[in-house]
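[retry 2/3] Sigma-70 family RNA polymerase sigma factor: previous attempt timed out, resubmitting with same input.
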Amino acid sequence: MAKRDVPLRWDRKMQQRLARGEAAALGELYDRFASLVHGLAHRVLGDERAADRITRDVFAHVWEHPDAYDPRQGPLRTWVATLTHRLAVQRLRATETAALARGGPGTTEELESKVRHASVAARADYIVQSMPAPLRAALELAYFQRRDYRQTAADLGVTEDEARRRLRLGLQLLSTARDAGAPETPGAPPGYGGAA
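[retry 2/3] Sigma-70 family RNA polymerase sigma factor: success.
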């Protein structure tokens, strides 16, 4: 419990600093989470400029509404990722809807499918980035280097049972991305554990 409380203590302290209007706190938060925010936004939108805009929007929102974060609901990192995801999905949906209205190719069903796919992909990226390093290393060896569990065990210097356990747990975590990938319901509170 003490280990888990340390990050939450940092999260509460950061929120308090932001609420006091400390520009240095925003800079520290940006340094810590900018690559996460930009990466998630880019994963959803597939566009560098749009991801840059979402990144600015997310940090502007955090700066203007620091009290919107509730430390009792989870880590600040998850809240920032949820906010990023929500804004990026809204931007994607608005952009694609506008293109359809102008007579662009596709249908509303294809739009929703695209939004769902982008949402699941972004969620999967976040899960992989957030999982403990041993699980992430095992998955990366198995996926990117096409290693089986025996080769993964040898590469990581662990037993075959441990390699299987890490791969199984990593895949179980990753499988939750699809569960959370349903399109966001307008007006619903943002949550990274439920609707996308």
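[retry 2/3] Sigma-70 family RNA polymerase sigma factor: Residues 181-196 have pLDDT under 50 and may be disordered.
[retry 2/3] clearing retry counter.
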